[in-house]
Amino acid sequence: MTEQHKEESMLEKISDKLHGRGGGSSSSSDSDDERSSATAAVKAKIYRLFGREKPVHSVLGGGKPADLFLWRNKRISGGVLAGATAIWLLFEVMDYHLLTLLCHCLILTLAILFLWSNATTFINKSPPNIPEVKIPEDLAVNVARSLRYEMNRGFATLREIGQGHDLKKFLIVIVVVTIALQCFHISATFTIAFLYAVFMVLYTVPVLYEKHEDKVDAFGEKAMVELKKYYAIFDEKCLSKIPKGPSKDKKQH
Length: 253
Hints:
The protein is 79% helix and 0% strand. The chain is mainly α. The chain has a domain at 134-165. Helix 4 packs antiparallel against helix 8 (192-211). The longest helix has 44 residues, at 2-45. The N and C termini lie far apart (109 Å). Residues 1-7, 18-30 and 36-44 have low confidence and may be disordered.
């Protein structure tokens, strides 16, 4: 009898513990749900710059470009930054030109291949395998024919415009030439320095904002409140005093 009582008491203790743990787990799950709902409500109330609702990675389009700008892979991002900096140094600081750079690269490549081909006889290694490049005759003839056809069409159009036969074509040519001239002037102002500055902004601002977005968003919220306050004062003192014209209803009567 005593052994049976002991077994029953042990079973009761085990069942009590199991029920206690189950109640604890249910209560913990309830608390987790409450915490998650509370955090979701807090996140919904947080001000985001420019009304942003998605993460920075999604705003930048996602994928590899966003990974590049946000430094997800530091080696690749660092390599791209080093390449862009080298290009900026070559063309801006050292005042290199594209044609000069191409010529120097060609000279260096030919010198390396020439020395390598002659050094193979002394070091007992195979010479470099340089592929043979040939332009097919059919391709060259087709390209020349298409260029000749387009150039003849252009000359015929200019001749027709010069003789005063088509006003519409004359206006189209004037507009196209004007747009091309403006594009040339705009492209002349976009120097390597400007492009490098834009690249550095895109390469630093998103990653810094992602790291300190809470602080930046809080500062942006304060700035927006101040701007709205100053705009209300300006509206009250200046804009509201500007006389408005008669409405359409009054004009009809």
